Each structure stands twice: as structure tokens, then as C-alpha cells.
Amino acid sequence: MSFITRGFSGRSRERDDRLPPGQTLVGDFPVLSAGPTPEVDTAEWEFTIRTESGAQHSWNWDQLMALPIEDVTTDIHCVTHWSKLGTGWRGVALDTLFEDVDTDYAFTMAHSYGGYTTNVPLEDLLDGKAWIAFEFDGEPLDPEHGGPARLLVPHLYFWKSAKWVRGLEMMEDDEPGFWEQNGYHLRGDPWKEERYW
Amino acid sequence: MTGHVDGNAIAGPLADFFSFDITTATGRCRACGTVAELARAMVYVSGAGTVVRCATCDNVLAVLVDTGERAWIDFGGVTAIEVRR
């Protein structure tokens, strides 16, 4: 009996088709930080969407928890070549937060406690593609992983999923955030290997 | 990595950009005005890049990104660098 195998490397080295090009699976959850970890108390936490009219839509922690909360199982891909498959999160969809936001701008800048920024097109945040996540693996999100709450935009490289997120500012143009000013790609699609400029 | 090492950690990477050891130079922080040797800065090293912060106010003094084939350096948080010969 003979089998037709894919390529020369055999079954054990077949690539998982959930892995984007250039990525390697990890079991742990590496931490990437550009600075000290901010300690943000949920009693003081606030998330604000600011539009071109100056309007501000804000939620404190209790108001966020009162919104529809979704369970999200997703693969995540870091630009430093690691991927984690089937990670479990809970959070509020950006669709929910944008329900009453009136804007003509197509781009956003995410701002974090501690000063980190990253730019994300609005269309990458809507239609069930992004969340404000506050639980990972059934536990409150650790500060080192962005707790109390981080942006979760899993279809883009994970630097876009801003840790310690505190707001989104609507932008007319796609301006670069922290890493994007320093060589990283403006959009960061892992399937297109959009790592750098 | 959550901790930091001191500014000496950037001596090697910066050798590509400068012909002298820049960590012995002094720089002025754009945010708080502190003038200090770069070796005294707080350096956060991660796979994405290296972030150099002012030890006085935490402001980002410099960012280094190195892919192996390409490298970027941003000294936007420093208003001036003094080198003594």
C-alpha cells in the first residue's frame, strides 16, 4: 500500500494551515513591553472614543461590564514570529461601543495608559473583528498582558492589540502609532507578512 | 520582559550608527529637560524593539528596531546629544 504525501518532509513536519507565513507556534504567552507596566485600578479605569466633532463617548468599568460580553476564541500572531492558536478571551465588541458614535473618519489611533499608541483603520475594528478584552483563559487579564483591559484585534499582528487601552481617537488620515513610526507596517496583516514599512 | 537593564545595553546596537560609544555622551530629555549620560537611561528590550526611556520622567528618548537586515533608530525624545573628545 502506498500513500501520497505532501512534499518531501513527511507528516510530522506538515505546516498547520492556521499559521501565517514566517510564524512558529508557542505554548506560553510571551510578553513584549516598551516600558513599565502601568498599574490601572478598575475603579479609575475609563475608555473613551473621541470623534472629529469633539464628542467623547466614555465608559467606566461598571458601564463596560453592563454591555453585552462576548466569548472569543481566536488565534493570535506576534510580529516577533510567534503564534498562539485557539486562545480564549472575553470582552465587549467594538461594534457595541461604536453603536452611537457618529464619525466620518476612517482611521483610529488607540491610546493606552503609559503612553503607547497604535493606529488601526476603523474597518478593522468593526464587524465582529475587535474587542475590548478583559479576560484571558478564564481569568482577569494580567497587567503584564495588558490588564485590566486591552484592545484585541486578532486578525492583525498583535502589536495592534494595544495593552492597557484607554481610548480611541478618530483620525482623518492613517497616522503611524508608536511602533509604526519606527519601522513597523501601518496595517500589519500577518497573512500578507506586513511586518515592516 | 518586564524589567529593564541600564543604558550600557545599547552600546553594541548603536555602534552601527555612531563611530564612538554613544552611551558616554550626554543627552537632553525633550520632555523634562534632564541632561544625563545615555548609559543612565532605562532600557526596555523586547523582540519588537528596544525602547530607551529617561530615568527621571519615563519619556521615550529613543527607539531602536533591528530586523537583522534592516534597522531603524529614532532619537526623537532627545533634543541634543553632547559628545566630549
Automatic annotation (TrEMBL), chain A:
InterPro entries: OxRdtase_Mopterin-bd_dom (IPR000572), OxRdtase_Mopterin-bd_sf (IPR036374)
UniProt-listed CDD domains: arch_bact_SO_family_Moco
Domain Oxidoreductase molybdopterin-binding: 35-179
Location of the region described as Disordered in the Swiss-Prot/TrEMBL record: 1-26
A Pfam family hit: Oxidored_molyb
Transmembrane segments: none
Cross-referenced PANTHER family: OXIDOREDUCTASE MOLYBDOPTERIN-BINDING DOMAIN-CONTAINING PROTEIN, PROTEIN-METHIONINE-SULFOXIDE REDUCTASE
Protein name, entry field: Sulfite oxidase-like oxidoreductase
Taxonomic path: Bacteria, Bacillati, Actinomycetota, Actinomycetes, Micrococcales
